[in-house]
Write a structure and sequence with these properties.
Elements lengths: L5 H14 L3 E5 H16 L5 E6 L6 H9 L3 E4 L2 H10 L4 E4 L5 H8 L4 E5 L2 H10 L4 E5 L16 H7 L7 E6 L11 H14 L3 H6 L2 E3 L10 E2 L2 H9 L9 H6 L4 H17 L8 E4 L3 H4 L3 E10 L3 E4 L12 E2 L2 E3 L7 E7 L8 E7 L8 E4 L20 E5 L2 E6 L4 H9 L2
Parallel strand pairs: 1-18, 2-3, 2-10, 3-4, 4-5, 5-6, 6-7, 7-8, 8-10, 12-15
Antiparallel strand pairs: 1-11, 9-13, 11-12, 11-17, 14-17, 15-16, 18-19
Helix pairs in contact: 2-12, 5-6, 8-12
Length: 420
C-alpha cells in the first residue's frame, strides 16, 4: 500500500522542505479524479441526478471552486458559505440550516439559484410570510434513525397537517439526512420507502410539483476509523496495545462507490420514479466526507523522541476530530509498511493533544516528516486558533505545489481583534 505510492509520497515530502511544517496538503489530482468517478457512476444509472458539495465539510475556496468547475452544486448552512458559493458562480445551491432568522431567510430566498430547505414548521411559516412564488424544499424527520439527528426536520404527521398553509410558495422537494459515516447503502432504500409513503399522501397538485428528493449525505469515505469507547479511553491513558482491529484493513479500506451508486440508484427508481407524475424527479445527493476526506493530509515534523512517545509540531487544533479517530500516519523520511506503536503528541499545552498511537515506519528520529493522512473532512472547517496559528495550505497538482492559503501571523490576528 505505502510502497506503491512511493513517487507521490516523495513529492509530498518535498513540500515540507520547501514550505516548512506543519501544513495542510491538498492532492488536487486525486480529489478531482474521485469526484468525477462518483459523478459518472451515478450518471450512468440515473438521468436526473445532481450532486451538491456540503461546504461545511471543508470550505476552503480552492476545494469549492474545483467542484464548481465540475458542475457540482453547493449545499450551504450559513450566509458566509452562501456568499462564497455565489462568489464562485455556483449555479445551483441548496440552503440547509435548523436556525435562521426571518431577515436571513429573506436574504437567502431572494437568490434565484438558491433552494431554501425548511427544517421546521416555523421556517416554513416564515418563508410563506416573507416571500412568494419561490421553490422551496422541506426536511423530513424520519424514524428509526440515529437519536442524535432527532432535532432536525419536520415530523411527517406535522408536515401533512401544515403543508397546505404554504400558499404563497411551491414545495418542490423532500429532503432527509439521518446519519453520518454510513457504511450501508441499503439504509437509503428503507428511508426512501418512508419518503415514498409521505409523497403518496400529498394532494395531487403538490405531489406533481415535487422536482427532487434529496437523500443528504453521511456516506463514509473509509481511510480511517472512529474510536469506540474502549479505544478512546485507551488513547487518553496512553495504552499502545490498541487498536484491537486490523490496522491495515481498517485504515486503508475505502468505500465501494460502485456499489453505493448501484444500490441508491436502484432504490430511487423503485421507490420514487415509479410514482405517477414523478418519472422525471431528480435525485439530489450531498456527499461531503466521501468527496474530500482522503485527499487532504497534514505534514508535520518530529520535534522530540522519547522511549514512550514522540512530539510533533502539529496540534489537534488544526484537526480537532483526530482525538476521536484513527488515521494512518506515515513517516515520509523512512517509508515502510512496518508499524511502530508509540504515543504521538502534538505541540499544544494540553493533555489531550494526542494525534495517534502508531506510525508506519522502521524508525522515528528528530526532524522526520510525518504525514497524517485522510483528514480532509471537518478539519480545515473546524480548525481553531489555540496556542498555535493555523498553518498554510498547499495544493499539489500535476506535480506542482503552490500556496493556496497563507499561515496566520501575528499582524493578521492583531488587526482582526483590535482593528487598524
Amino acid at each position: 500500500m505505502i510502497n506503491e505510492q512511493n513517487s507521490k509520497l516523495k513529492k509530498i515530502k518535498s513540500c515540507a522542505t520547501k514550505f516548512g511544517t506543519p501544513l495542510y496538503i491538498v492532492d488536487e489530482d486525486e480529489l478531482t479524479k474521485n469526484a468525477r468517478n462518483l459523478v459518472n457512476l451515478f450518471k450512468k444509472r440515473l438521468h436526473n441526478v445532481e450532486i451538491f458539495y456540503p461546504y461545511k465539510t471543508n470550505n476552503l475556496p480552492l476545494v469549492c471552486e474545483r467542484f464548481k468547475e465540475m458542475n457540482l452544486g453547493a449545499e450551504v448552512s450559513s450566509i458566509l458559505d452562501l456568499k462564497l458559493a455565489i462568489r464562485l458562480g455556483v449555479e445551483k445551491i441548496i440552503f440547509n440550516s435548523p436556525a435562521k432568522k426571518s431577515d436571513e431567510i429573506c436574504e437567502i430566498i431572494e437568490n434565484d439559484n438558491v433552494t431554501f430547505v425548511a427544517d421546521n414548521i416555523q421556517q416554513l411559516r416564515l418563508v410563506n410570510e416573507n416571500s412568494k412564488n419561490h421553490d422551496i424544499g422541506v426536511r423530513i424527520k424520519l424514524s428509526n434513525t440515529d437519536k442524535k439527528w432527532e432535532r432536525f426536520g419536520i415530523e411527517p404527521k406535522q408536515f401533512l397537517e401544515n403543508y397546505k398553509k404554504c400558499t404563497k410558495n411551491r414545495i418542490v422537494g423532500m429532503h432527509f439526512h439521518c446519519f453520518t459515516k454510513n457504511k450501508n447503502p441499503e439504509t437509503y432504500s428503507r428511508l426512501l420507502t418512508h419518503i415514498r409513503n409521505l409523497i403518496l399522501k400529498l394532494d395531487e397538485k403538490t405531489r406533481k410539483n415535487i422536482k427532487f428528493v434529496d437523500i443528504g449525505g453521511g456516506f463514509d469515505s473509509g481511510g480511517y476509523f472512529t474510536l469506540n469507547p474502549i479505544e478512546f479511553a485507551s488513547r487518553l491513558t496512553g495504552n499502545k496495545l490498541l487498536p484491537i482491529r486490523s490496522i491495515q484493513y481498517s485504515m486503508f479500506k475505502k468505500t465501494d462507490m460502485k456499489s453505493l451508486a448501484k444500490n441508491i440508484s436502484e432504490s430511487f427508481e423503485e421507490k420514487i420514479l415509479n410514482i405517477k407524475g414523478l418519472e422525471n424527479t431528480s435525485l439530489y445527493l450531498e456527499p461531503g466526507r466521501l468527496l474530500v476526506n482522503n485527499f487532504i493530509h497534514v505534514l508535520s515534523s518530529v520535534l522530540y523522541v522519547d522511549k514512550k512517545f514522540v512530539t510533533i509540531d502539529a496540534g489537534t487544533n488544526i484537526f480537532p476530530r483526530i482525538l476521536y479517530e484513527h488515521h494512518p500516519i506515515i513517516n515520509l523520511s523512512s517509508l515502510s509498511e512496518n508499524v511502530i506503536k508509540t504515543n504521538i503528541f502534538g505541540s499544544l499545552c494540553s493533555s489531550t493533544d494526542i494525534i495517534g498511537n502508531f506510525v508506519f515506519t522502521n524508525s522515528l528520529n528528530i526532524s522526520d516528516i510525518l504525514m497524517v493522512m485522510n483528514i480532509g473532512a471537518y478539519s480545515i472547517s473546524q480548525a481553531q486558533q489555540f496556542i498555535e496559528p493555523l498553518p498554510k495550505v498547499i495544493s499539489l497538482k500535476n506535480g506542482n505545489a503552490k500556496t493556496v492559503r497563507v499561515e496566520e501571523d501575528f499582524e493578521y490576528r492583531y488587526k482582526r481583534d483590535v482593528g487598524d
